[in-house]
Every structure is written in C-alpha cells, then in structure tokens.
Amino acid sequence: MSLRALLLAAFSYVLLLMAIAFAIPLSHVFTERVEGEVRSQALAQAELVAVVAGSSSRADGTVLAARRATLQRTVDAAARITRGRVIVVDSSGALQVDSAKPPAAAGADYSSRPEIRAALAGRAMQEQRDSATLGRPLLVTAAPARNARNDVVGSVRVSQDVGAISRAVWRGRLALLGLGGLVLALGFAVALWIARRLSQPLAALEDAAHRVADGDMTAAAPETGSSEQVEVARAFNVMTGRLDRTLSAQQQFVANASHQLRTPLTGVRLRIEEARHDASPESADHLDAATDEVDRLSATIDDLLTLSRAGERPQAARPVDLGGLAEAAAERVRGAARRDHREVTVHTEGAEVVLADAADLARILDVFLENALAYGGRGPIEVVAAGRAVSVSDRGPGLAQGEDDGRLLERFRRGAAGRGRAGTGLGLAIASALATQWGCSVSLRRREGGGATATLDCTGA
User: Fold this and answer.
1) What burial letters (b/e) apply to 239-250, b meaning 16+ CB within 10 Å?
2) Which one of 132, 199, 242, 386 has the largest count of C-beta atoms within 10 Å of its C-beta?
C-alpha cells in the first residue's frame, strides 16, 4: 500500500471516529430537543387559544357569536403552527370550535377525554396516548380556558399525530446525517490534499531513484516538503553525485587502460607472427596458442571499451524495424550454423518498429546468437520478433539452478554451460548495458523442453 493510501486511511479513520463520537450524542440531543420543542409549542399554542377562548365565551363556555370568527382564525393559526388539530369545548365538554376540515358536529361531546376532564378541572395536561377513534398514537395537550374572573369556562385541546412528529425527527436526523456527510467529504478532501502534499516529495524521490537505477545519473530529487524529506532528498542527491563521479572515474580508467593495452598487444602479436616464420613445428604450436591468447585478451579489451562507453548516447534514436533486424542477425550466423549442421529459423510476424540505434540492437542480437551457437548444443536456433521484442531460443543444456535471476547479466559472470570454454563473460553484460541506454531490457529464462531463451524487450523504447 502506498504512503498516500496509508495517510488517507489514517485520516479517514480519525474522521470517521470523530463523526461517530459526535453524531450519536448529537442525534440523541437533537431528538430530545425536537420532541421538547413540539411539546412546548403545543402547550404554548393551547394556552394562547385558551386566552382568546376565555375572552370570547359566556360563563358556560359557549362562544359569543360576535367573537366566533376571531376565535376560529386563532384556532386555525394554531393548527397550522402545530401541524395538528385544535378544538375548543365549553364547560360541559361540548365542541364549540374545530380546526378540522370539515369540522366535527357542533356540540359533539369530548368530556370523556382525560385531557379534557383535567383541563375543565383547571389543570393543563399533556400526554401521549392511543386514539380509539383514529387508531394511532397522538400527543394531546389541553389547557383550561378562563374568563376575566379566572373561572374555567371551557378547554382547548391540541392533538398531534406522533407519527408526524417522528417523521419530523427523522427529517432532522437525515439533515444531520447529510451535514455529517458533507463534513466528512470536506475532511476527506483536506486529508487528500495533505496526503498528496506529504507524498509528492517521496514520489519525486522514487522517480529519481528509478531513473538512477536505469542509468540516468543526472537525475536529482527535488528538495521540497518537510524538513526530514528535504534532508533525505539532499542526501540522495549527494549520494547520486558521488556515485556518478565514481562510475565516471571507473569508466575513464577502463577506457584509458584498454587504449594503453591495445598498442603493446598489437606489438606482441606482430612479434609472435614474425617468430613463427622461422619456428620449428613444436614451437609453432606454442606460438599459435600464444596468438590465441593474445586474440582473447584483445577481445576482452574491446568488450571493456564497449562497456566503458555504454551509457553514453552520442547518436540519436532512429526507427528500427525489429523484424528486419532479426532477419539480418540470423543471416550473419547462418554460415557458422551450417558448419555445425544446425538450422536457424526466423519468425517476424507482428514485429514492430522501435526508436533506438540499429547498431546497438544488432550487437545485442549478435551476443544472443553467439551464445546460442557456443552453448546451445546441436539443436536448432529460433529467432522470433513479435511486437516490440526479439527472442533467441536454443535447445542446449539451458540455465542451471539460480541462473535465471539476472546474475548472468553481470560482468565476468559465466554460466555453468560456459565454464571451461573460451569467452570473456562480458557479452551479456554488454547487451544489458546497450539495451538499458535505449529503454530496453535483456532477460534470460529456461525454455520448456530444454534450452534457454534470451529476450530483448523494447517496450519502453
């Protein structure tokens, strides 16, 4: 998991815990507050209507005709505010005014209702009970209506559907949930921004490290971010600079040493050839062996020179047809293969064009084919160019255990099949170095049925 993902997970976990820690008690408080406000509002409206009803009624609680319209408007307004039903009854419990549409029959008896009895007795009452008439729970609030002499002349009742109150509570909870989701989204956005800011320097450092691993010693990590990240980037850049200078010095040394050795080797070879003209047959055999050793040392020097120049790219990349490259490479070794009674086959269907240097890629394929000729037994050699890759396969002894992990691409590393034979151990190292500088890669693997397959993959070229 990436650092950015870990930071996001940590921030999200903390945000979620905070949201839960606040949401549960807040929801409980909100529910209690809404229910409390509904109850207090119902009682306040009941008492308000009771004041108007007391001043609009006779001693027995019947409403004065001149004041009925005013009382009706007050009752309707209270019903709208409480979202319930409001009724006014006289001192006997008979209905006087009703907010329902259509209203109940005038004079309907409500004296059996416990809240009405309590209000007519001079006590305000509020309770939740099941309505036998409606068949659902109601919150009922009743208040006594008093005249100017403080005599109870009637009662006002506000009835509200408990289901409607619960729906209002749930709407409030959903609003809180939406607000919490918005806060979480904003918090996640901030966490994403922070995680990105924290991980960007590390991502840049990772990119620089990959570029250095691919041979680009000019890559530098940006010295940004926190103080610790700046220190790491600075140390990385110092390390890369020192490594670049060390490698440059090594390459320069190898190049200089190779040049210095080439001239005396040429002189030695000339002297051996001159001495051979007058040598006895026995001495001639020794001189021929010495010539072979000089040639082998010269080949090693040439390989070292090639390796010392690997990583430099003086020539520009040009389109290279991998199919044509494979055909040409196979043609170069067909003569040697025929002398060993071996067949070289080429398949180029689907081969693509890549941007690289044709000479470098040809050198890589020559290394593959020379190894197949030297260590591939007596079986056929197959060259396959498909897509952006070229592979060379043989039917020799193949790779020994542990040799397919890239070790054979190291300098002077020789496989089990090559031990005891002539060779410098630099061919695959040269091929790998040449491939890397063009964005390609070289790999070796065992072949099913025996043998080995060397592959040049130019997917990145």
Assistant:
1) ebeeeeeeeeee
2) 199
